[in-house]
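User: structure tokens for Protein kinase domain-containing protein, please.
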Amino acid sequence: MSLMVLHNTQIPVGLKVKEAEHKNNTERSLICLTHKVTSLMKSYCRIVYIRIHFICTQYTIPRQQHMFASDLLFQEVVRSEIEVMNQLNHANLIQLYAAYESRYDITLIMEYVEGGELFDRIIDENYKLTELDTVLFIRQITEGLEYMHKMYILHLDLKPENILCVSRETNKIKIIDFGLARRYKPREKLRVNFGTPEFLAPEVINYEFVSFPTDMWSLGVITYMLLSGLSPFLGDDDNETLNNILACQWTFEGAEFSDISDEAKDFIQRLLVKSKSWRMSASQSLKHPWLSNPSLHYRLHQKVSDISLPLAIPSLSPSSSFSFSLFLLFLLICICVNVNLFVWPQKNKCHSRHAPPPES
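Assistant: Done. Predicted tokens:
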């Protein structure tokens, strides 16, 4: 396991790095771990953790007399990520504290979170993800997107793997990985041809102009996955997945959605719209009843409480309910009979100070 001491790196990257207040960390050793990123970065990137406070991503850049085009493109990707992160400061976005460039490395010092990927909670059979949990997750993601879009920045690679939980005990999250993020300029028509197939919007597949609604499509896919554990457009291969997206073929007919609220389904329906101009924006999504209605949230909380009760009575059909009512009535009659036979005579005897008069 290779070690690296941060304070030996002295050459700052040629971009303005946002200053950040943080605690001094006396333990400066970095633990280097391998981390998969986009196909362009796989051969260059390793993720480095600073214990307790920070996380450090180190990109190794080959320095040769004649650099390949992919190497130069990789440098642009890393510098673009730094430039984007310097403009972002929000509670639901991972924070960049500093960036350094040496002869062979570009090192990013970022906020440390330890709760693991949101994707891990989706696939964990021992973790029961409720609809109310999903509301909390999606609201935070939407707030992060709203902030980014107000800063005219598109994420363009939103997926559960790029959302980290702050800790395993809470539902607080951070959006990460801005390597594919782009600044949106309305006068410049932006097209992209990258992303994860399951989460691509139709306009990306068709190589059409992208904008803020492109991120909102991905949010709709994530919402669907959190509520059901299923991917709405996943096919046997990438081609089938892309065709499903272009056909906008998805449904709520599975058993996984039998107990999901109508508000949640409406939320998804307003995001997974093929025409991007008809999708909800981040601001509109935050005002949707599913994310903003306290009464609905209370009902969802009560539903979770009822399920967690060990003696909870299951829902009954009308015929079963009538039979159960007759049983309760019969039980009540039996109780009354027992009271009249045993309790009432004793009660009269206890409250009587004198013996009853003799019968004539």
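User: Anything notable?

Assistant: The chain has two domains: 3-111, 118-308.
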